[in-house]
Amino acid sequence: MKRLTYIVLLALTACSVKEAVPALRPELRGIRASIEGGEPDTRATVTKLADYVGRSKFRGGDRAIFTNIRRTEYPIAEFTYPGTENYEGVTFVAGDGGGWTRGEGDGAPERVYWTDAVSPHTFVAYSIPQDASFDWTREQEMLYSYYVGTLGDPSESGEIVFDTAEALEKEDLLICHDTGVRAEPGGSVALVKFAHALASVRVVVNINGFSASSSAVDNQTVVSDMRLLHQPTRYKWMESSAAVQPYGDEDSRRDLLLWIPNGSGVGSSQARTFTFYGITAPQPMDYLTTLSGDNARYRKTQLSFDVTYPDPLNPQLLKTCTYTASLQDVSFESGYNTTINITLNHRDEQMVVGVDFEDWEFVSTPDQSQLKKNSTFLHDTSRSSVTIATDTEATEDDATWLYFQEGHLQDIYGHDGSREHPFQISTAGQFLSFAYEVKDGRSFGGQYVALDADLTFEVPWIGVGDASHPFKGTFLGGMRYLCSVKGSPLFGNLAAGSRLEQLQVLAGGTVDGRGVLTDSGEGVICACVVDGDVTLGGSNAGALVGTNSGVILASYHTGTTSGAAPVGGLVGTNSGTLVGCYQAGKVTGERIAASSTGVVEACLYTSESMTRPSFTETLNSGIASWCASHSGYDVYVYVHQPAGYPHLSE
């Protein structure tokens, strides 16, 4: 989607570390912040973007509170902000000239340092509008905190009125949640992005048949007082989330009176279009489906509006009629726009209502079913939620991932699974479809599948294939992340000839098998990472693989490994080859393999030397030596991480 970016400079001069900081940790002195969809960075006068909802640029006096700055992987407490001290975050205030200065009295330290100059860092922040009535409070629950906001002034009752563009800006909360920020050259500046946290709504009304004659004056027919009824007004932001969620009881619902920039509409006397704008609390489909009982009526989006038009019997007089419209299960997504289209023919008394989904700049995105398809969050693992290539509904327009085009198998992006054009997985639904394809007997032997997005599993995983239906192809992870993995191992069985490359897995709970990557590996696993504590449900288990009879090269696990004895830090039973791998963390069993009759070369485990360059050198020399005598393998290289564990070079 098209995104215009407004860039400002935040001067950052904060740190909690008083001792001398090595040169490997450059000081973070400035931040450039952009608003997605906002105005370009310029000192010249900029015209307000047409039909733009909310804040398009930072203004003097705007505040940004960074509630978390840390290295994304393996953060170090001394270089995490806020740290153990009692302050909310590192605060900055925008000046009138575009620069940013440090806020006063927030108790934050004097300087901030990058953990290192090369690793991606996480920056989390919020920026509330400049309005004294904006309701935004920080709440604490057990060990974590969150923020609660309210649409409109909570001290008032009745409808919330959007009567100007400025009224929309006063509700536009901005959130920054970027896990891939790297130090700019020199390390003094970081580029971060702010996104709109709430949902925008646009209602477009096209009317015809109201004019008494073709000579009627254009502005005699007017649509006004567009109300979005019974909208939730409270929402919650967890700092670990990039979006806000509905929050609170249903008694906080209020009507929204939407803003219309051009009250006379656009068009001819016979047909005119009127466009209204507003901001509402996000209401994703997952939220709507939880509404039951008396609250089930709120699954229906309701609107009311007035149409004033010349009386057909006496065109000198104007009549006003109030119309209502409703739609079932229309979602409003955080950071996106929902457009409700209404066509009203007064002559035939017919009304047609439809919905479009767009980004914040009103660039069209697919319809609601497609939005679910495009999600990188896995909410449902049922077979009915996706298609596979042999399904009758797997067509060019309706397939989740693969379909047949004139007898040739291809994905919806036009890729044929060759080395040059691997099948591409960009959504959670497509990864689920991939799993069911293998379970259905499609082994992908001789074919390539590439992961093109980070995915998050919000439900237990079902496994790609199973013991009777192994994967035989090449899976290219591209150093992408599969997050919060739990349930079955990622792959039920990696057959001889298969290859799993450059995949990073963040463990999210118990894996009901003998390895996070696979129960049984007969092929090649290289440059794969499992991060986080792993609890395995089977015996003879390992964090990476249960039974290995293939090759595992340049892969590692960081975190505790536990399960029914015997347990290995990396594999349960090894009759194959392990080269250049390491395990960092506690193991309730053997460090590398619970049992091994195979080859184990240059594989290391937790020790005081892990953060030293010599540890990395041992791994790299072992990989290079083994690959020199074994053709067909790429020489992967570890990079020394100051005060951290080695990571694989991309």
Textual characterization of the structure:
The model is unreliable at 1-23 and 40-50 (pLDDT under 50). The chain has 650 residues and is mainly beta. The protein has 3 domains: 5-129 and 172-196, no CATH class; 199-370, Immunoglobulin-like; 460-648. It starts with a strand and ends with a strand. It is built from 5 helices and 49 strands. A hairpin with a 2-residue loop joins strand 19 and strand 20. The strands form 9 sheets. The protein has a 16-stranded parallel sheet that branches. Strands 1-2-11-10-6-3-4-5 form an 8-stranded mixed β-barrel. It has a 6-stranded mixed sheet with strand order 17-18-12-21-22-23. The radius of gyration is 28 Å and the shape is globular.
Radius of gyration, CA atoms, in whole angstroms: 28 Å
Into which percentage range does the β-strand content fall? Answer: 35-45%
Which class best fits the helix and strand makeup?
Answer: mainly beta
Number of domains: 3
Low-confidence stretches: 1-23, 40-50
First CA to last CA: what distance?
27 Å
Number of helices: 5
Helical coverage, percent range: under 10%
Q: How many β-strand runs?
A: 49
Largest sheet: 16 strands, parallel
The overall average pLDDT, rounded, is 84
Shape: globular
Q: Outline of this structure?
A:
Helices cover 7% and strands 40% of the residues. With 650 residues, the protein is mainly beta. The chain has three domains: 5-129 and 172-196, no CATH class; 199-370, Immunoglobulin-like (Sandwich); 460-648.
